[in-house]
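To whoever is on call:

I kicked off a structure prediction for a single chain this morning and the downstream step that reads the tokens threw a length-mismatch warning. I double-checked the sequence; it's 228 residues and nothing unusual in it as far as I can see. Pasting both halves so you can look.
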Amino acid sequence: MTTPDVDPTIHLYAICDGAPEIPAVEGVDDAALEAHVLDGLTLVISRHDRAIAADEAALVRHAAAVDAVAAAGATLLPARYGRAFPDEAALDASLRERAAAIRAALEHVAGCVELGVRAADPKRQAPRPDAQPPNATAYMRARLADVQQLERVAAGIHEPLAAIARDSVRRLMTSGRLELTAAYLVSTGSVDRFRAAFDALAATHSELAMVCSGPWPPYSFATLEDRK
């Protein structure tokens, strides 16, 4: 009789400050969530006897587990899906290498949630090369003016919201039309103020399709590398 190969895996969901209560929810592949304590941090993990598939169902369960831990009041850094380790020694070694950055990141997100904003104008088109003006130089000038206008609109949306947030990241596409995607790290006490500011901006920019989502755990601010 052949014994199936066993490939033990520890799956990481989040790194928490202190010793929060771990909610009784199931993680990926219906595995129970566990607390693994390391140097004053609590790592939310689950244990598996095989590698975890990167399918949609697993991604949803991972995100739901992180949401549940955050909803319980933990200050946390969500782990990207797929952060897996063969054993506790490998897990501990990986986290200890970045201990200072982890603690700094936890301090940065403490007391905050993430809110997302998307703004787009699907009807607006960039100047076409075959349209007026009739020569390349004039076209490039018109294209530059168009991009600069889009950037001004994006700044007019982003800057008032960023002023309310502790931190923010944004991605702006100006290829043909305005597409702004941004995330804001907002203190829990400022969420209502942020939403009111967003609503005012959305009313001012009625030509745009604007959506505010969240609050979420601070996925966009959990990176341990410096952002440029």
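Update from on-call: the warning came from a stale cache, not from the record. Cleared it. Sanity check on the structure: Helices lie at 56-71, 88-96, 99-109, 136-162, 191-204.
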